[in-house]
Write a structure and sequence with these properties.
By secondary structure, the chain is of the alpha+beta class. Helix content is 22%, strand content 21%. Strands 1, 2, 3, 4, 5, 6, 7 and 8 form an eight-stranded mixed sheet that branches. Strands 9-10 form a two-stranded antiparallel ribbon.
Length: 247
């Protein structure tokens, strides 16, 4: 277990298996997210983790209080600060993160992430035009641990990728099916400036769409990339919501 110091106290994240035991009685959807979601699809360790993320739909947020009964829950409200999340309180749409620990003297163990849905469709809080059916938003390991679909996780990481996000991208990309890559390329096309969607010197700084079928050689060493079409073939400007093509 990695210990990370923060201004609000240390982090020692639980394992995905431990989180799954705590949330076993939750009847509403939830998923392991963040870097651990990438490792669950890759099947091996990709990197160290400073925390563990558990994603729930905002409408189901109180299920987390029941799963972590007796714990402390602190909401990032406003972002960059922490304040107590009162029992039974419905957090506003501006709050997306909650830090949780068993007791005040113990390290933080779990970070809750709240995301949006309309009916049976997940919608990105960054861009409501980026969508997935809830049935396609998650996967399960062979032992039944639910985790966020890697294409959805990589979409969130693509906005401002850090070194850890680059490692996660490299670890997850070989495990994406062609339909998953196609969805990720369309999602990344909504991000400005584009990150992983454009890496070829020939189309540097030019928005582009992606071919989902294969990975191209990276100009930055061995990092796989989503290959691109030419400069003129862009998807920017489309405001039509699109849904996930099932693998």
């Amino acid at each position: 277990m990695v210990r990370t110091e923060t201004p609000w106290g240390p982090w020692e994240p639980e394992t995905p298996a431990a989180v799954a035991r705590r949330f076993a009685g939750v009847s509403t959807p939830w998923w392991i997210a963040g870097g651990y979601a990438i490792e669950l699809v890759a099947g091996h360790t990709v990197r160290d983790h400073a925390d563990i993320d558990v994603l729930l739909l905002r409408r189901d947020q109180l299920a987390a209080q029941r799963a972590l009964a007796g714990w402390e829950w602190w909401a990032a409200d406003p972002p960059g600060t922490l304040r107590r999340w009162a029992p039974g309180e419905l957090l506003p749409g501006s709050v997306h993160d909650v830090w949780c620990r068993p007791r005040p003297a113990e390290p933080w163990r779990v970070q809750l992430m709240l995301d949006e849905a309309v009916g049976e469709t997940w919608t990105s809080r960054r861009d409501p035009g980026v969508r997935l059916p809830l049935a396609a938003l998650g996967r399960r390991t062979s032992t039944g641990v639910p985790y966020l679909a890697p294409e959805a996780q990589l979409y969130y990481k693509a906005a401002a990728p850090r070194p850890n996000d680059e490692l996660d991208f490299a670890g997850a990309l070989p495990h994406l099916s062609p339909p998953q890559r196609a969805w990720l390329c369309r999602a990344i096309a909504h991000i400005r400036p584009p990150a992983w969607a454009v890496r070829s010197p020939r189309v540097s700084r030019t928005p582009a769409t992606c071919r989902p079928a294969r990975a191209a050689a990276s100009p930055r060493g061995n990092m796989p990339v989503l290959s691109t079409r030419g400069k003129g073939e862009q998807t920017r400007g489309s405001s039509t919501p699109w849904a996930h093509p099932h693998p």
